[in-house]
Automatic annotation (TrEMBL):
Keyword Zinc-finger (UniProt): no
Lineage: Bacteria, Pseudomonadati, Bacteroidota, Cytophagia, Cytophagales
Name under which the protein is recorded: FdhF/YdeP family oxidoreductase
This protein's UniProt keywords: 4Fe-4S, Iron, Iron-sulfur, Metal-binding, Molybdenum, Oxidoreductase
Spans annotated as Disordered: 1-52
GO MF annotation list: 4 iron, 4 sulfur cluster binding; formate dehydrogenase (NAD+) activity; molybdenum ion binding; molybdopterin cofactor binding
Cofactor(s) listed in the protein's UniProt record: Mo-bis(molybdopterin guanine dinucleotide); [4Fe-4S] cluster
UniProt superkingdom: Bacteria
């Protein structure tokens, strides 16, 4: 302890202190994981029995925008749609030019370039967008993608949004700005308050802001009347302090963005493998023989993944893509890094790029579960013809339970049901199964295209079943790979951000900090929204994020937000959640990862955990544009001091002055973080323990558990379609950088709906025709008006819209089985053309066809 950097201020933030051995694995080797037990705070106990499963009454989605002057939904005005042919190649020189253009537009050549060249470097800062891992060893000079460039230049923006800005713009005015314009207005520079009855935010001092939060929290009848939300962009150190403060305050109400994305992955993996995380490393991707990519669009959402897929393809891998839409990033890829090599540049520029997918199964929405069952049926048939040559009987016998029951389930699943529901033929599935059957090094990657399905948990369990049949887990080149969104969303869960903490974790907090943590489960996001709507919640605090726009049922969420006594938003930039409030609200401007964080002991760094369990440091490189911005750590500590006072044994002041002290707390309370301060200081960070990676399945029975998942047929009424919400290329989660989605050929517009051409013809909808959309759930209807119809290559009976525009259609009561994740990838809708009144004026340059 006395040698820890936490007790020597001169060592704060010093990357030269490389006192731990580096555990970066060489190609083909497994990483050194240490001797600590696997821990990720995903419970392996039976699923929760106290879930709030009320359907809830539908909000007035059409009337709300007229009843409430402050809009909860994005404005409906069109911005000038232009269509081009969808792309078949991702990245390339266009991505390079776009990345540079964003940096120049936001920050100019010097500040912008300096930031980009330090992103994802071992002595720089971690990108705030996706959680795709950085290479263990060599990193290129430009170790970032187009979307990372957008996120970083947005974070680094030097345009101030301060007292003068808010004096000019009321909340009503701000709510009529698009999400793009709210984000692009600039960085918040001063703490601001919305006082009772006010129409504008006004300045407030930091001491007064902290005191206000503490006063309102301490005035509650119960700690459970407060909700503490977390975005996946929050690094480990503030996340750990945040959950510690909340539990010392007395509640487990810690909903987070995981509840809306990969909660289904955790629910599926924790009881099958014993760990709610993936089991592969980046080197495994390079060595895989077969890679399945299901419900994921890496070209837009995880572009650096394409570099890994390109390397795998060059090593001989075959790739199977299962997705309702044909996505450019799954077709061909031109690596922007190759343009820096004179020997490759011309060939890349003139060529078609690296082909990515070998077999593309264009599945219907929410039917991937059946495709996977069909694939496993083919494997069983192949094993019967070639005993011991297809399935790994040794792995099944030694490590697993439940295999006979799975076989029975597969035998009882008919090919007629598989083909009818999925739209994929037996021959197509057999072709994919032939690849899987011949190989052992198999990796399956998935994202929210699965997790947000009604059957999402069951579908992921079928993925696990297939891997267990093949023994394709716990060996080099094979395993499970949930690809997460925000860059530290996995780390936040590891740090204890969860409404259902394990007793083991709570016991460690109790011992370290001498208090009794609350044991009662808290609210997840859906339950939190229902509690808001009931008026059971008086204070809502958010560490980043945009829960209003991220969650399902936008107007329902807004109704709850308007009942609050106080909203507190720790945030670097404006978004729509900051506008829809109750009596009072605070905007507390925080530094981002790109900002230099100077504290009493010197410059600080923080840490993040990527999708593959690597924890590494992140150290800012740009001078903050305002001295009124505080770090997330300082804000959490300030609120904790104002709320808890002398009741807390935590050294909140010391944590603010030197973040090494926080890491010492983490090291003593979370397995895998022993010697945290030393290990994280060597370049590239360190791997956390991962049981399944070593075939150590830490389930309750110590086995890898096959699952027999239920199969429910979802029968649609005549005229109904299944809708999913998707991202455009110029957005990351709810942050909209621009109005373009160039890979899908959509430019300068977001209020569009992608439809199958036959479905359009049956409904009398023309290309660029204006339509209204109605969702149907438990006898309820929700409506969204004025979307432009675009014919697209999507399975008949399916359609897609962007979020957050489409979230108003997703019912708060429609959730995935077991995980309670909103079903943004399974919304039953009807779509009807709109007759425009004679003389309707459209924006300049906008031409929309009307029904004949």
């Amino acid at each position: 302890m006395d040698k820890s950097p936490a007790y020597d201020p001169n060592q704060a933030g010093k990357t030269e202190q490389q006192t731990a051995s580096n555990n970066v694995p060489k190609s083909g080797e497994r990483p050194d994981q240490g001797s600590a037990p696997t821990s990720d705070n995903w419970s392996t106990s039976p699923e929760r029995q106290t879930l709030d499963d009320r359907v809830m009454e539908a909000p007035d989605t059409l009337g709300a925008k007229h009843k409430f002057p402050i809009l909860a939904q994005p404005p409906e005005e069109f911005t000038g749609l232009k269509l081009t042919k969808p792309a078949t190649v991702a990245a390339g020189i266009t991505a390079v030019l776009k990345s540079g253009a964003f940096a120049m537009d936001y920050e100019g050549p010097v500040r912008g370039t300096h930031a980009l060249l330090k992103m994802n470097q071992k002595d720089g800062f971690d990108c705030s967008s996706c959680a795709w891992p950085d290479p263990d060893d060599h990193r290129s000079v430009a170790e970032f993608c187009e979307n990372g460039a957008k996120a970083t230049t947005s974070d680094a923006q030097s345009d101030p949004v301060g007292p003068e800005f808010f004096a000019k713009h009321s909340l009503v005015d701000l709510s009529r700005m698009t999400d793009r314009d709210l984000n692009n207005a600039g960085r918040l520079t001063h703490p601001m308050v919305l006082r009772p009855g006010a129409t504008h935010y006004t300045p407030i001092s930091w001491p007064e802001a902290f005191a206000l939060v503490g006063q309102e929290l301490n005035a509650l009848k119960s700690p459970h009347e407060a909700i503490f939300y977390t975005s996946g962009k929050v690094p480990n150190e503030p996340a750990y302090l945040y959950q510690l403060f909340v539990r010392q305050f007395g509640t487990n109400n810690l909903p987070d963005c995981s509840n809306m994305c990969h909660e289904s992955s955790g629910a599926a993996l924790s009881n099958t493998t014993g760990l709610g995380k993936g089991s592969v490393t980046l080197n495994d991707i390079y060595e895989a023989e077969v890679i399945l990519i299901i419900g994921q669009n890496p070209g837009t959402n995880h572009p650096r993944m394409l570099t890994a897929l390109q390397k795998a393809k060059k090593n001989g891998a075959k790739i199977i893509s299962i997705n309702p839409l044909l996505e450019a990033g799954l077709l061909h890829f031109k690596n922007p890094q190759d343009f820096m090599n004179p020997l490759k540049a011309l060939g890349v520029l003139l060529g078609d790029g690296t082909p990515i997918t070998d077999i593309y199964l264009q599945v219907r929405i929410n039917s991937d579960q059946l495709v996977l069952r069909g694939l496993m049926k083919c494997l069983l048939e192949a094993e019967a013809l070639n005993p011991g040559q297809v399935l790994d009987q040794g792995f099944i016998q030694e490590y697993t339970t439940g295999y006979p029951e799975l076989v029975e389930t597969l035998n009882n699943t008919s090919w007629a049901d598989i083909e009818e529901a999925s739209g994929i033929t037996r021959a197509q599935i057999q072709e994919a199964a032939n690849l899987v059957a011949r190989h052992k090094k198999i990796i399956t990657c998935w994202a929210m295209g699965l997790t947000q399905q009604k059957n999402g948990v069951y579908t992921i369990q079928e993925i696990v079943n297939m891997h267990f049949m093949k023994g394709a887990v716990g060996i080099p080149g094979a395993g499970l790979c949930p690809v997460r969104g925000h860059s530290n969303v996995q780390g936040d869960r590891t740090m204890g951000i969860w409404e259902r903490p394990t007793d083991t974790f709570l016991d460690s907090l109790a011992q370290e900090f001498n208090f009794e943590p609350p044991r009662e489960y808290g609210f997840d996001v859906v339950e939190a929204v229902k509690a808001l709507h009931d008026g059971r919640v008086k204070v809502f605090m958010a560490m980043g994020g945009n829960m209003l726009s991220a969650c399902s049922d936008t107007e329902f969420v807004a109704e709850g937000m308007r009942k609050l006594r106080l909203s507190v938003h720790v945030t670097p930039k404006l978004n729509r959640s900051h506008l829809v409030n109750g009596e009072m609200a605070l905007l507390l401007p925080c530094k981002t990862r790109i900002d230099i964080d100077m504290q009493k002991s010197g410059q600080q760094f923080m840490t993040c955990e990527n999708s593959m369990g690597v924890v590494s440091m992140s150290k800012g490189v740009l001078t903050p544009i305002s001295d009124q911005m505080l770090s997330e750590v300082a804000i959490v500590c300030g609120i904790a001091l104002a709320t808890l006072g002398e009741k807390s044994t935590v050294d909140w002041v010391g944590c603010t002055e030197n973040y090494d002290l926080i890491r010492e707390y983490v090291a003593r309370t979370i397995p895998g973080f022993e010697d945290f301060n030393q290990k994280v200081r060597h370049p590239g960070g360190f791997y956390l323990p991962n049981g399944p990676r070593e075939r150590n399945f830490t389930t309750e029975n110590g086995k890898a558990n096959f699952s027999c998942t239920p199969l429910e047929k979802h029968v649609l009424e005549p005229g109904q379609l299944v809708l999913m919400t998707i991202r455009s290329h110029d957005q990351f989660n709810t942050t909209v950088y621009d109005y373009n989605d160039r890979y899908r050929g959509v430019h300068n517009e977001r209020r569009v709906i992608f439809l199958n051409a036959e479905d359009m013809a049956e409904r009398g909808i023309r290309e660029k025709g204006l339509v209204n959309i109605t969702s149907h759930f438990e006898g309820q209807q929700r409506h969204a008006e004025k979307f432009i119809a675009i014919p697209y290559d999507i399975p008949k009976g399916n359609c897609a819209v962007y979020f957050p525009e489409g979230n108003v259609l997703v019912p708060i009561g429609s959730v995935a089985y077991k995980s309670n994740t909103p079903t943004s990838k399974f919304v039953i809708v009807t779509v009807a053309p709109v007759e425009l009144p004679i003389g309707t004026q459209l924006p300049a340059g906008q031409q929309i066809a009307v029904p004949a």
